[in-house]
Amino acid sequence: MGNTLPHNNSICFNDPDKRYKRALAAEQVQVVRLATLDENDNIIVRSIKDIQFSDEAFRDVGICSYTWGFDRVSWTDNETGLTWEISDRCEAMCRAALKIYPRVWIDGICMIQSWPGHIKDNMKIMGRLYWHGNVVPEMILYELSPEYPLRGWVQQEISFTNLTYRITPLKQWFDSNQDVVPMFAKYLESQKEENDEAKMERPGPQTIDISSFNKAVSDSIPFFNVLSRATEGRTSDRATKLKAKIADLLSRLQVEAFMYGSFGDSTLMDILSLEIPLVGKLERENNALGLNSTSIQSFRTGFFRFNTDRQVAAFSLASYVAKEDDIETFVKSLYDNFVPSLAVGTVINGNPGGWCTGLSPVATLKTLEWPNGCEGLLGKSDFEFCQGRENID
């Protein structure tokens, strides 16, 4: 569409919210915009008219989950002609997701950052995007940002949703060592034979490039931790088994790192024997307990990381999963009994904004009533623990 929005000297041009409302009314932009690649491999963003929030409509849409970090680059939007700052990780994340799905939603470029009204409208429907789309976490990049595995809202985005994951460092190492990996896989398979003569001789450790393998395993540990977090609360047989396998692997890696100081052929056989898929999907779980647990994850994200942008998005998911249409009423029902202590204008972990630096009073928390039958899913000890925390994210 290019820079086709009206340009004049009226107040509409100078007021971002009024300009957004005018463009929305003229159907020059829509609330939902998705990124694709053009014939020249450029990322372009297009508005989607009359979007239907359903599994079918979002079957081929990837929804990015990543951290912005602290470095910014300039982005010029093809649809509006506007320029704004985005995370320096945004474009790489978008391109990686577009290798998996033909259309992608990513906040940095799909939300018109120059128009607060467009951001606000996206926050209201963000829960629907994450619930019906396919969440693509930062794991599709080679390196996770240090903050990603620690962020509270990451749990909200990867819990119970349709998740596409990749243990990127190890996957790349496996792909680059197609002559070595099958050799060890065949050896392990032969060890299942009852006939000793059918068992292969163990490949020597010199077969592996220890330096590159050790780096790939070390770099993959945060990826396994994130994947483990994604299985928390999921009750499907696949997710339960995957969580157990990851716990087993991480335990073995800890022992090998302590005993030998690096990872070698024994580590490779551990990974192969546990049969943990390095690339895979976890299907959304919509059982009753899962729905309630997902809502609570969103509640906790909303209260603990009280940054204005993320707060609304957290409640968007919570209210949608809890089948509450009116987000404002839904949030008010929480506020009536669960009031966080705000620290406005403070900076925590490098992030400025309005933050919840503690929950009080404890007596109120112990007697609060969670809406939608969620009471009791969190123990009282959680409240006292959270009340004492300060650097909450």
Detail the topology: elements first, then pairings.
Layout: H1 11-14, H2 16-25, E1 33-37, E2 43-47, E3 61-65, E4 72-76, E5 83-87, H3 90-98, E6 103-105, H4 107-110, H5 116-132, E7 134-137, H6 152-158, E8 162-166, H7 168-176, H8 181-190, H9 210-231, H10 237-260, H11 265-274, E9 279-282, H12 288-304, H13 308-321, H14 327-335, E10 340-348, E11 351-359, H15 362-367, H16 380-387
Parallel strand pairs: 3-6, 3-7, 7-8
Antiparallel strand pairs: 1-2, 4-5, 8-9, 10-11
Q: Can you offer a commentary on this structure?
A:
The structure is a single chain. Strands 6-3-7-8-9 form a 5-stranded mixed beta sheet, sandwiched between helices. The protein has 16 helices and 11 strands. The radius of gyration is 24 Å and the shape is elongated. The C terminus is likely disordered. 46% of the residues lie in helices and 15% in strands. Strand 7, helix 6 and strand 8 form a beta-alpha-beta unit. With 393 residues, it is an alpha/beta fold. It starts with 10 loop residues before the first helix and ends in a 6-residue tail after the last helix.
The 3D shape can be described as elongated
Class derived from helix and strand content:
alpha/beta
Number of strands: 11
Question: Strand order of the main beta sheet, please?
Answer: 6-3-7-8-9
The helix/strand order is HHEEEEEHEHHEHEHHHHHEHHHEEHH
Question: Which stretches of 5+ consecutive residues score pLDDT under 50?
Answer: 6-12, 301-310, 337-393
Mean pLDDT equals: 76
Helix count, DSSP H or I runs of 4 or more residues: 16
Distance between the termini: 39 Å
In helices, the fraction of residues equals 40-55%
The largest pleated sheet is described as: 5 strands, mixed
The whole-angstrom Rg is 24 Å
* Strand residues, percent: 15-25%
